[in-house]
Structure formats: C-alpha cells, structure tokens
Design goal:
single chain; 22 strands; binds ligand C2E; binds magnesium ion
Length: 643
C-alpha cells in the first residue's frame, strides 16, 4: 500500500543521474550471491535516468523488501518530500504532510545518527511506523549530504525475513549513494535556477514588461553600439514613433484596452521592420526603431512602412479601434552624434510630424531646434501671462442681419507681451493649448469678459440682454472641471447664464468626444448655450454633430469671403442654413466685410452676422464707444468707433 499521506504538491524531482557507476556499486553490494547480483544489476542499470521511484523499486526487489521509503528534509522544517516503493507500486518524490509516526521516526533517526532496527532491543518508534503496515522487520537510517549532515532518512520494511548484518551494510551503502547523488542533483539544480533567474532578471531589465520589446535601456545600448560600429560613410537612423490620440482610447475604453492596443501595435511594428533593425518601446505610447541604413533614405522607407502598418483597425475590447502614428526620423553618423542627441532629434521630428497633421513622418532638420527654442520661450512667458494681467480681451459685435442691431459681443483674447507688439490669438492660443495653459487663460478671458459685459448690461439702455460669446479651446472642453469653473465665474459676476454662449470647435469635440459631450451637457444644465465655431473647416458632417447638444452654428469666414463671386460657396451656405433650420439652430455668418456679403448671407437665410463691416474686435474702451454710438437716440452726433 502506498503511504497514506496527503500529497501537497508534486515536486517532480527526478533523480536524473544515479550515475551508472554508483548504481553498479550499490547493485554489487546488495546482491545476494553472484546470481542475485547479476539480476540486481540488470534491474538497476536501465533506471539510471528515470525517476527515484524506479530506482527504489529495483533496490527494494534486490533487498527482497516490501517497502522502501526515502524521506528528504526534516520534520522540524515541515518541508518533507517522500518517494517510496512498495509491492503495490511506487511514487516519485513529492511534497507531503508526513504522518505523525514517520515524523517521530525522522526525529529519532537524526538523533541516533545511525541505523535503527525493528525487534527486540530495536526502536519502538520504527515498530510503530512499520507494524501497522504489516511489516514486522525493517530498518531506518539517515541519508547524509556532502558534509555529512543528515538530509533525510531511508526506511526499509519486510513482512517476512529479519534484517541481518549484511542488510545493514547494504543499506548503509544505498543511503550513502543516495545522499551523494541527491546532493549533486540539488547543487546542479540550484546552479540551473540561478542561471535562469539571472537570465530572467537581465531580460526584465532590458525589456518592456507589457509588449516584450526591448526598452529604452537596451535601445540606448544598441544605438551606441551601432554608432560605434558604422563605417565612415554609413549611417544609422532612429525613428521615434508616437501614437496619435492614444489617450482617447485609454480614456474612453479603459487602461486595459489601452494596454491591449499597445501590445497589438508592438506586434505590427515588429512585423514591419527588417530583421537587422530593432524596435523598442520607450514608454507610454512611444516606440522607437533603430534602422541600419544601407541607403540614404532607409529611415523614410521604414517610417512609411510603419505608418502603413498601423493602418487598418485594431480589435480592442471587442471593438474596432483605429489609431495612427506620427514618426520622426533622425540620422546619425558615427563620431558626429551621440545617443541622446539622435533620440532628441528624432523626438523633435516626430513632434513636427504631429503638427503637420498626424499619421505621417518627418525628418529632423536643424531649423526644428530653433523653433523648439522659440516655442519654449513662448511657453515660459505664457505661464506668467495670466498672473501678470497680460491677457486682455477685445470684443467684436455680432448683429442681427435684418435689424443690424447689436445682439452679442464675442470675446477675443489678446496678449500684451512685454517688449512685443500686441500678440493675436494665432500667435499663442495653439501653443498655450498644447502646453496645457488654456484652462487658466480661458478662465481669465471668461471672467474679464463677464465682468465687462455685465457692466455694459447695467449701464447702457438697450444692452440689458446683451449676449456674450466666449471661445473654448480643445483642452478646456476636455477638462472635467470646466462646468464647475464656468458656474463659479457666472456666480462671482452675477452674470445671467442664458446670456452666455460658449463657442467650441470640431477639433475640440473630437479631441475627447465622451468628455466633450459630458462637459456640454453640464454647461447646458447651467443654462449656458453652445455654439459650433468655424463650421465647415473641419471634417465632421452636421448629421454627426447632431449627437452633441448645440444651440448655434457659426459658418467659417472662408465660405463667406467669396460668397458673392462663387456660386458653390453660396450653395454650401444655403445647404447649411437649411440643415441648421431643420435642427432649429440659428446661423451666424462670420467674416462679413462688405454690404454685398451681408445681403447675400441674409438672402440665404442667415439670421446673424459678424465681421469688419459691423465692427472690428476692439478693446473695452472701443466697444464702449460703439455702444454709446449704437444706443444714442437718433439725431445726436455719433462717436467714432475705434478700430
Ligand atoms: P474665431 O472665434 O472664429 O473668431 C473670429 C476671428 O475672425 C477673430 O480673429 C476675428 O478678428 C476675425 N474676424 C472677424 N471678422 C472678420 C472679418 O470680417 N475679416 C477678417 N479677415 N477676420 C475677421 P482673432 O481675434 O484673431 O481670433 C482668431 C481665433 O482665435 C478665434 O477665431 C478663436 O478661435 C481663437 N481665439 C480668440 N480668442 C480666444 C480665446 O479667448 N479662447 C480660445 N480658446 N480661443 C480664442
Ligand atoms: Mg469664435
Ligand atoms: Mg469663428
């Protein structure tokens, strides 16, 4: 019967190499007579590479025993492994909870330091372990490791036939052989484990855990190596790849989906490059490729392959997700450029590729460095602009096209940068938005304009319902704090929310559609209205935009500019006005500079107009003059409008 022990965990240690020579010695000493020895050898030799159970089977038969049991470890540590052979079968070394009788035996064998026997004058502990199994005769002895310390015990039991002196001798030899072999196996295993661990640690230090690609450390090493190896005339290229709008996937579908996408991207990137090139993940959604150039344009060639490889949707979280990537290329000549420089240049070129419209690649050139320096100075100056009150607001009238009456003013930001002429929005809004400064600048513009328009509403007759429109940058719309901040500004200035219109752009909505929709609904809750600015310049259809809560549509200036001359612009405007009417959205025509343009858009159904014809954007003082002129009783001399 197999020992009635609970198997905790199969350890599966195999006594791989009970060396043939060792087994021969064991066999010789165990054999009873020449015939017995020959049988024993035949039985033992082929098992050398099998498990310990088989070896024990052979030894048991040679000893004509009914049980042979090897216990490794000690009862004190509780980590015991047992292998055994009985007349009914055998079992490999396994981790087990040893029955109490055997734990006691183990302790006694260790204490005795030599062989224990059954029977008169023998060990009652051994009897207690064997007799219940019908084994009246037996022995137990320690198995020792290399330094002579006990590493386990060997137990033998016979139902018939006492154990004699010969048996004691043979058992000692078996225990000795087993000890030596188990020790050498253990050592071998620890060396193997150490090597595996070291390799794994080295791999982990050099590779990205998520995608399995080399990481920045390994790439840096490889690029340095490549720069040292390339010959005078040959070059290497480093490509810097960044996914466009990866954040949207992460925000909308969750981080797990984001990770899934990165793994798929890593796969496509690896498949798109040549075997001699190396792809790495630098972190986040940034990847890099080291290209060994044979040809001067190899960098561009690989970059194009990468951009193409990412085309076509990725299956992520059960959905089809499309991402594109922007790639920057920098070339390196041995001895002329170092790793930091080439990576930075590739990064800069990637940034230019993104600005050029995403989903494309750009090659580094020196002018990019100058642009970055200028931009950096701009950001540093902008960071202080709000607290130094350098952001000011100009106002431009929006009028009813039929009545020509002032309906609203649009607040337009201006930057009084010390030492510079007045900076127009195109010179700083985009950069501020990229640098994450727009929420603060935008709030400042909103607060200044609300305070100012509230004053005009109070002071000028006919202006009590004067509306204010204020632009929202893409990052503002993606900012979860937006509606809270807007509510605070309205509250602080006692501004009626129904007189505020916030202008958003398609790119603002598309940056993070889910958050944009949430922000828009929250703003609506406040009683604020929403206008879509510059309509026609983006790519969205009006049908798509219907999914967003909108109250007003502003048709972009380029469609108004030649509305009198160009038939198709007129058709476009007419179509938009009709569509907007079906959605009950009033339309503002932007950029009206002449009476004929005003007549044309009015004839096509636009209700409202904005443009130099009605007034240029002017400072608060200029707008005050405009209001005075606009609200003076007829017949009184009007005040000139500042431009
Ligand atoms: P927008 O919101 O479409 O504002 C209208 C722009 O068209 C203004 O340019 C205005 O001066 C100009 N404009 C109006 N009528 C005419 C016209 O008859 N002819 C011509 N040629 N131009 C006309 P501005 O002030 O340079 O602003 C440009 C853009 O900067 C704005 O376009 C808006 O998108 C953005 N912007 C301005 N202020 C802010 C702000 O405080 N926050 C945000 N997020 N964006 C702002
Ligand atoms: Mg606007
Ligand atoms: Mg506009």
């Amino acid at each position: 019967m197999i020992l009635g022990v609970a198997i905790v965990q199969a350890v599966g240690l195999t006594l791989v190499a009970l060396a043939a020579i060792g087994i021969a010695v064991v066999a010789r000493s165990l054999g009873r007579g020449v015939k017995g020895e020959a049988t024993l050898r035949a039985a033992l030799l082929p098992v050398a590479t099998d498990g310990l159970d088989k070896t024990l089977d052979s030894v048991r038969r040679a000893l004509q025993a009914d049980l042979i049991l090897v216990v490794l470890g000690s009862a004190e540590t509780g980590r015991m492994r047992v292998a055994e052979s009985t007349t009914q079968g055998s079992s490999e070394l396994r981790q087990v909870t040893l029955p109490a009788a055997y734990s006691r035996l183990d302790t006694e064998v260790r204490r005795a330091g030599g062989i224990l026997m059954t029977g008169r004058g023998g060990s009652p502990t051994l009897d207690a372990a064997l007799v219940p199994r019908g084994l009246a005769n037996g022995a137990a002895l320690p198995i020792r490791g290399e330094a002579g310390e006990p590493i386990g015990m060997l137990v033998v039991g016979r139902s018939r036939g006492r154990m004699g002196r010969d048996d004691r001798h043979r058992l000692s030899l078996v225990a000795e052989r087993l000890g030596a072999q188990l020790e050498s196996d253990r050592l071998e295993r620890s060396v193997r484990d150490l090597t595996t661990m070291r390799n794994e640690l080295r791999h982990r230090a050099d590779h990205d855990a998520l995608t399995g690609l080399p990481n920045r450390t390994l790439l840096t090493h490889k690029v340095t190596q490549a720069l040292a190896e390339v010959e005078e005339q040959t070059t290497i290229a480093v490509l810097f790849l960044d996914l466009d709008d990866f954040k949207v996937v992460n925000d909308v579908l969750g981080h797990q989906a984001g990770d899934e996408l990165l793994v798929s991207v890593a796969r496509r990137v690896s498949a798109a490059i040549r075997p001699v090139d190396i792809a790495a993940r630098l972190g986040g959604d940034e990847f890099a490729v080291l290209v060994r150039c044979v040809d001067a344009n190899d960098g561009e060639r690989v970059a194009k392959r990468l951009v193409d490889a990412l085309e076509g949707p990725f299956g992520v979280a059960g959905r089809d997700v499309s991402v594109r990537a922007s790639v920057g290329i920098a070339y390196g000549l041995a001895g002329r450029i170092d790793i930091e420089e080439i990576l930075r240049n590739a990064d800069l070129a990637m940034y230019e590729a993104k600005r050029a419209g995403k989903g494309c690649y750009a090659r580094f050139d020196r002018r990019m460095l100058e642009r970055v320096r200028t931009r950096h100075e701009l950001v540093v100056a902008l960071e202080k602009a709000v607290e130094r009150n350098e952001i000011q607001v100009h106002y431009q009238p929006i009028v009813g096209l039929d009545s020509r009456q002032l309906i609203a003013v649009e607040a337009l930001a201006r930057w009084h940068r010390p030492g510079h002429t007045l900076t127009q929005p195109e010179g700083f809004i985009g950069v501020a938005d990229e640098a994450g400064l727009m929420p603060s600048i935008g709030r400042s513009v909103l607060a200044i304009a609300c305070r100012q328009v509230r004053d005009w509403q109070r002071i000028y007759p006919g202006c009590a319902r004067l509306e204010l429109t204020v632009n929202l940058a893409p990052t503002e719309l993606a900012d979860p704090a937006l509606s809270h901040d807007v509510a605070a500004v309205l509250e602080d200035n006692g501004f009626d929310p129904s007189l505020l219109v916030l202008e958003i752009t398609e790119s603002g909505v598309m940056r993070n559609p889910e958050q944009a929709r949430r922000s828009m609904l929250e703003l609506r809750e406040l009683g604020v209205r929403l206008a879509l600015d510059d309509f026609g310049t983006g790519h969205s259809s009006l049908a798509h935009l219907r999914e967003f809560p909108l109250d007003l549509l502003k048709i972009a200036r380029p469609f108004i500019e030649q509305i009198v001359e160009r038939e198709r612009d007129a058709v476009f405007v007419e179509t938009i006005v009709r569509l907007a009417a079906s959605l009950e959205l009033p339309v503002v025509a932007e950029g009206i500079e002449s009476e004929s343009q005003a007549d044309a858009v009015a004839a096509l159904g636009c209700e409202l107009g904005q443009g130099y014809l009605f007034g240029r954007p002017v400072g608060a003082l200029g707008m005050t003059r405009y209001l005075v002129a606009d609200t003076l009783p007829p017949g009184l001399p009007s005040v000139a409008v500042a431009s």
